[in-house]
Backbone:
């Protein structure tokens, strides 16, 4: 598109948030509470099926495991030979994707995994506090349910490893305990499990999506936030360290501050400003079925198969799978079949039922599973809140709070160093410049 300066009739909010998903809306919420005039732009409609917030399970817990691990890259590469594997890293020559995979490998070192898991647990703990706090605020909360979650392990080895890790989880504040068989039956009297054992996470819950997102957006407009939907960003105007504004197909905007919180599209937007985000979309699936009578009453996580089972009033949703496939949201029936097989291997007696919807969405993922939250180093008025990944619903509330504190100039309630935008600036060996070769016979 032809470049042009911003017009004199631009909209001029204090803060403009790019992205109307969970990350952007939580930023807008806390910024508005701080007294700012806020505009939110979204490339589609809030709660649209293309958004990551539309079809996920809404799972929110006070613990978590980063995507990276000592064997994740090896397993991902082997998935090319096992197309039904839960993790798919198809072969690619895409330079950015290769760089992301290298950083995923580095993030899988045991000490880094422990650090990332600890920070994730703290983010989730704070987000749960925010969600529970909504019960005494003016924000509607009918779509948040704190029920706890059953973590089911199919094999004895996996269950044994989970039990061994319990002390670390408890030390991090995660309320996990072993479920005896009679306790599991008391929690889920209608459901038959074929598993080696289970843990119970008392602090977990879920958000009903997309209705929670739509409700939050409606509340923001009632608070005075200007929500502009179906609005595509076309470019930015920059002077030195200041982003003067942006051009869109719905007009020009001249905010004092800009927040990029556009999910998997954040990397593309950031590159328009020469800001590099080590961010890749990872495709996940959800399958929504009519709820059978013997379905679980509460949240169940099938740990080894990475499938979450979440109940609605009259529906049941299975969510999971991980495929590093760019911005592709096409549906692989083979991978959907793998998820269904996982569910029925763990819950063999559950009645087969009508499938109501199969959905695929893109989770914006960083190699260490920690989001980008912070100022862009090259600018004084550009902040990023992106990369919340497969734990997005449980990380974005506190992420929005931290962004508001940052823009306010107050002391952030957490150390922001783990979320720096430039933490992946060291290139892998094959992208580093080669040392100069000696000329002639000189040494």
Residues:
């Amino acid at each position: 598109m032809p470049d042009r300066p911003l017009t004199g009739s631009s909209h001029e909010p204090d803060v403009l948030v790019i992205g109307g998903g969970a990350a952007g809306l939580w930023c807008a919420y806390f910024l508005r509470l701080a007294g700012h005039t806020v505009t939110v732009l979204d490339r589609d409609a809030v709660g649209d099926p293309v958004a990551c917030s539309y079809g996920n399970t809404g799972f929110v817990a006070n613990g978590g495991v980063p995507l990276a691990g000592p064997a994740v890259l090896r397993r991902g590469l082997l998935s090319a030979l096992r197309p039904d594997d839960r993790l798919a890293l198809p072969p690619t020559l895409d330079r950015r994707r290769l760089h992301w995979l290298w950083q995923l490998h580095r993030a899988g070192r045991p000490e880094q995994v422990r650090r990332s898991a600890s920070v994730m647990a703290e983010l989730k703990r704070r987000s749960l506090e925010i969600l529970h706090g909504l019960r005494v605020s003016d924000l509607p909360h009918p779509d948040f349910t704190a029920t706890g979650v059953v973590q089911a392990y199919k094999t004895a080895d996996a269950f044994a490893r989970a039990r061994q890790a319990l002390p670390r989880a408890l030390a991090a504040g995660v309320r996990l305990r072993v479920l005896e068989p009679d306790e599991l039956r008391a929690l889920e009297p209608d459901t038959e499990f074929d598993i080696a054992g289970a843990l119970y996470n008392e602090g977990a819950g879920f958000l009903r999506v997309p209705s929670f997102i739509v409700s939050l957006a409606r509340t923001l407009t009632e608070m005075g936030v200007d929500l502009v939907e179906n609005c595509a960003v076309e470019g930015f105007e920059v002077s030195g360290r200041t982003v003067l504004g942006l051009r869109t197909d719905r007009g020009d905007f001249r905010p004092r501050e800009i927040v990029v919180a556009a999910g998997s599209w954040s990397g593309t937007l950031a590159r328009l400003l020469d800001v590099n985000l080590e961010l890749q979309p990872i495709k996940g699936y959800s399958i929504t079925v009519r709820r059978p009578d013997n379905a679980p009453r509460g949240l169940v996580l099938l740990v080894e198969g990475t499938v979450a089972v979440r109940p609605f009033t009259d529906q049941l949703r299975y969510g999971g799978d991980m495929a590093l496939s760019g911005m592709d949201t096409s549906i692989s029936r083979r991978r959907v079949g793998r998820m269904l097989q996982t569910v029925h291997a763990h819950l063999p007696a559950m009645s087969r039922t009508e499938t109501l919807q199969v959905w695929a969405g893109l989770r914006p993922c960083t190699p260490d599973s920690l989001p980008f939250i912070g100022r862009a180093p090259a600018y004084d008025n550009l902040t990023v809140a992106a990369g919340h990944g497969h734990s997005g619903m449980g990380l974005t509330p506190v992420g929005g709070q931290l962004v508001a504190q940052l823009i306010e100039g107050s002391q952030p309630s957490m150390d922001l160093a783990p979320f720096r935008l430039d933490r992946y600036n060291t290139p892998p060996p094959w992208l580093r410049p080669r040392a100069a070769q000696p000329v002639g016979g000189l040494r």
Observations:
- The longest strand covers residues 280-290.
- Residues 26 and 400 are 5 Å apart (CA to CA).
- Residues 435-443 have pLDDT under 50 and may be disordered.
